[in-house]
Amino acid sequence: MDTRRTADRNALTALLRSFDLGIDARKAVTDAQIRAIAAWRTRSTDDTADATIRDEARQLATSVLDLGRQLRTNRAGLSKHVEELAPGLLEVFGLGPVTAAAILAAYSHKGRVHSEAAFAALAGAAPIPASSGNTVRYRLNRHGDRQLNQALDVIAKIRSVHDAQTRDYIERRMAQGKSHREIRRCLKRYIARQMFRRLNSIMT
């Protein structure tokens, strides 16, 4: 639904930039503009071509709004399910209903994954040696549960922007000569460990 909403929003923006419909679309179309377009009515003064273009714009705007409502409903439902199954999980910084649900679905129940190392391997966040000569390096793991891996990646990105400790860690590792890819791998491994320990402590 999120992909469809983005596609419809982009199509609406392209339409507004291609035809003069009285909407300034030089910048990204705002939510207020989308609501206004969705409320358009057929005008008797429009010729067939103008009426068709306005109708298409109205349908795209309506689709964007409908999908937005569905996504909000789904997020609320996911939040409720996650809180029932793993109380307090959503309190972890950087987790939202979607990422928490992906992590919880992969973890399933206590005992399914026997260790934090196994959980990191399941997430594709376990380090893979990529050393050469005297240089000791590790690379990102392209295997494992990709939805779980994506959830860890989203959390890492959020923390990289909004968490002071994470930013300090990134700066420190960059000063040591680590690349952005290597730092991201380390962050995802740390988050996998944190999630496993948290779930192990709150789930029965």
Automatic annotation (TrEMBL):
InterPro entries referenced in this protein's UniProt entry, alphabetically: Transpos_IS110, Transposase_20
Domain Transposase IS116/IS110/IS902 C-terminal: 89-170
Pfam family name, one: Transposase_20
Gene Ontology molecular function, alphabetical: DNA binding; transposase activity
Alphabetical GO biological process terms: DNA transposition
Lineage top rank: taxon: Bacteria
PANTHER family assigned to the protein according to its UniProt record, in alphabetical order: TRANSPOSASE FOR INSERTION SEQUENCE ELEMENT IS1111A, TRANSPOSASE FOR INSERTION SEQUENCE ELEMENT IS1547
Protein name (Swiss-Prot/TrEMBL): IS110 family transposase
Organism listed in the record: Subtercola vilae
